[in-house]
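quick one: uridine-diphosphate-N-acetylglucosamine bound model?
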Amino acid sequence: MLAVAVLAAGKGTRMCSAHPKVLQPLAGATLVDWVLQSCEPLNPQRRLLVVGHQGERVQQHVQRRHQQVEFVLQQPQRGTGHSVQQLLQPLADFTGNLLVLNGDVPLLRSTTLGRLVEHHHQSGSAVTLLTACLEDPKGYGRVFCDEQQRVRAVVEDRDCTAEQRRNRLINGGVYCFHWPALAAVLPCLKADNQQGELYLTDAVGLLNPATQLTVEDGTEISGVNDRGQLAACEQVVQQRLRQQWLAAGVSFLDPASCSLSAGTRFGQDVVVEPQSHFRGSNSIGDGCRIGPGTLIEDSRLEAEVEVTFSVVRQARLARGSTVGPFAHLRPGAVLGEHCKVGNFVEVKNSHLGAQVKASHLSYLGDARLGRGVNVGAGTVTANFDGTSKHPTTVGEGSSIGANAVLVAPVTLGRDVTVAAGSTITKDVADDALAIARCRQVEKKAWHKPAAPHPSNATPGSETEPSSQDQDST
Ligand code: UD1
Ligand code: CA
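yep, here:
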């Protein structure tokens, strides 16, 4: 029987942040998400999360993303040992093993946790801790063992003597305890240390036998106490994600310049060009070509979509669509098959049917465009009257001339043609041609009036025609 407890009540003073440390972002999720996720493959019977500092926020976040987590409040926060003391009551009847994880150690691999639990079973120890041998052990608790490799004590960096500090074997903040043994010693913890806190590491020294398992890859136990360590962890996660997708058939032309989120899924033969970034949860279909210079967030791209130098957020793109360069697809943009959204086109909350083309300089907001509609350069939906947003509908096969303004709410039928430069304020019937602009006037043999003498001129008047030349129709 295995229960998992994640310690997440601390403030994270060294982050200098208004947010609780365990909610700091890492590759599109938060620290605590990564920690909780890492123990899922072990199928724990119970999952407990100790919350305290901004506990409600942490609880709300975790409840939305993880199933069956029991929340335990630690108030005030008097150290990691005190944090685990809060489990005495909820785990009163529990007799199995308890895997304790620090909420700020996000890079652990599930396989490593599995090995720790296995090692613990086989050794029959009261506690097995995960350790690492680090080049630079600064800041971590040091682990001291006897000749039989039994753990004798864990001493915090700040409580170490200069001699002890030279020990490079460190405590990873991950422990597998035989819970009844831990429960028996938890009440004996004392705060006689530099921070005046109750240390979980002191419980290790009170348990017998205590063993340790050293991880090969020291980066796995990286703890996040400050922004520098957070940035270093981000690099590690990014590297892992890119490796994972390279192995699964995605090409990155310059992997180090791209960033991924854990929630992004790629099909086969996707090509990701330099400086492309994926955030939130995305699905990128087979054969898509993304980038260079592109941001994709919470979007779904079917196969063979191309996006170049563009931003795509909360959008859906059907097979074969092309976007960019320099396009902006905003939330609710839905592109049918083989659509083309070109340079300097912004699409928001709009459905474009198959083979719609909006190739240049347009804004399409709150619009529905039927199959095959051609949107001329510079066309704009005027969807906002200063108070509310209104819809625009354009039937299939219609063609909107360049620089048209479609003033919403407005509906254009099928196979409508809108003349270039029109400001359309009324609905247009199927098959009609709509022209809504001044007729061109041509004055034959018209000459500019002679320039007045500079001393009589009013500023700016030199090149303007006199009023009698203006067309009043
Ligand atoms: C801890 C270990 C240290 C180890 C390191 C590994 C102790 C005393 N020290 O040090 O040996 O090398 O982790 O990363 O355990 N927390 C609570 N309640 C509290 C205090 C902390 O829930 O009252 C939580 C924090 O939210 C955090 C975790 O416990 O997720 C670790 O706390 P932190 O203060 O970061 O411990 P370290 O000094 O890093
Ligand atoms: Ca820490």
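The CA atoms of residues 213 and 384 lie 63 Å apart.
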